[in-house]
Amino acid sequence: MSRTCDLCGKKAARANSVSHSNIKTPRRQKPNLQMIKLDGVSARVCSTCRRTLAKKAA
After folding, report:
1. Count of structural domains, the chain
2. Are 10 and 19 in contact, with CB atoms under 8 Å apart?
3. Greatest CA span in the chain, whole angstroms?
4. 3-state secondary structure of 40
5. Among 1, 11, 7, 3, which residue's Cα sits nearest to residue 39?
């Protein structure tokens, strides 16, 4: 199962870890995925989409 949002398709991005001596090491920034129920079906949704769904439901 890939780490992508089921609604917006957001996935891991590439970034650099920068040390004190300014050495750059590649790393991955993973999206904040959370399991929620959408119409009785569980989905992996990023926190941004979850907040948008909560806003539209209110």
Report:
1. 1
2. no
3. 51
4. coil
5. 7
User: From CA 41, how far away is CA 17, in angstroms rounded?
Assistant: 37
Contact between 27 and 18 (Cβ < 8 Å): no
Domain assignment of residue 44, given as a range: 13-53
Q: 49 lies in a domain?
A: yes
Q: What is the pLDDT of residue 2?
A: 83
Read off the pLDDT of residues 7-44 as tens digits, 9 standing for 90 and up: 999 999 999 999 999 999 999 999 999 999 998 999 99
Give the predicted TM-score (pTM) of the model.
0.80
DSSP 38: E
> How far apart are the C-alpha atoms of 45 and 36, rounded to whole Å?
7
Is residue 58 domain-resident? no
